[in-house]
């Protein structure tokens, strides 16, 4: 996506100042979850309730906003120096949405394929997978978390 200097320049021109601030926030939150994932349990990483929401979001605009935020998290992960997995990206999106008063569900799924077992992590709001194919629940068996 961001291979050439021209692509990066076009991206820079498309983003608003608010988008840039959110992109910088996402970059740091990604780094935080990347480092924390090496030292913390999943239960502590997954708990979004450590921060009180800034404001409550209406459900009508929550899906649109979540889609925009997911794109910024994806861009931040591509601009990162470290390789950000789908789990780190999903944890970041989940945390950022809950911080903004938008309740979300972190999903981790697994499936058997020709090379073994594959896994994927994503975020859902109101039953909709954010930034994912709508058939993701058919492609992956969602694992239940003990918490």
Structural summary, described in words:
Strand 2 and strand 3 form a beta hairpin. The chain starts with a helix and ends in a 5-residue tail after the last strand. Helix 4 (59-79) packs across helix 5 (86-99). The protein is globular and about 40 Å long. The longest helix has 21 residues, at 59-79. It has helices spanning 5-14, 17-36, 42-46, 59-79, 86-99, 136-139, and strands at residues 105-113, 116-125, 128-129, 141-142. 50% of the residues lie in helices and 16% in strands. It has 147 residues and is of the alpha+beta class. The mean pLDDT is 83.
- The low-confidence parts are none
Largest sheet, order of strands side by side? Answer: 3-2-1-4
Radius of gyration: 16 Å
- The N- to C-terminal Cα distance equals 36 Å
- Main β-sheet description: 4 strands, antiparallel
Mean pLDDT reading: 83
Outline: globular
Quaternary structure classification: single chain
Q: Number of domains in the coordinates?
A: 1
Briefly, what is this?
The protein is of the alpha+beta class and 147 residues long.
Can you lay out the helices and strands and say which pair or pack?
Layout: H1 5-14, H2 17-36, H3 42-46, H4 59-79, H5 86-99, E1 105-113, E2 116-125, E3 128-129, H6 136-139, E4 141-142
Antiparallel strand pairs: 1-2, 1-4, 2-3
Helix pairs in contact: 2-4, 2-5, 4-5
């Amino acid at each position: 996506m961001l291979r050439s200097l021209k692509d990066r320049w076009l991206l820079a021109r498309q983003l608003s100042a608010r988008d840039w601030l959110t992109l910088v926030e996402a970059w740091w939150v990604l780094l935080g979850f990347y480092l924390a994932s090496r030292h913390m349990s999943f239960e502590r990483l997954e708990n979004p309730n450590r921060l009180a929401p800034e404001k409550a979001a209406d459900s009508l605009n929550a899906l649109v906003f979540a889609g925009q935020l997911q794109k910024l998290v994806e861009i931040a992960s591509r601009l990162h120096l470290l390789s950000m997995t789908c789990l780190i990206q999903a944890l970041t999106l989940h945390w950022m949405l809950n911080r903004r008063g938008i309740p979300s569900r972190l999903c981790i799924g697994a499936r058997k394929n020709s090379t073994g077992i594959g896994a994927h992590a994503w975020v859902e709001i109101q039953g909709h997978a954010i930034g994912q194919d709508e058939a993701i629940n058919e492609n992956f068996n969602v694992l239940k978390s003990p918490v």
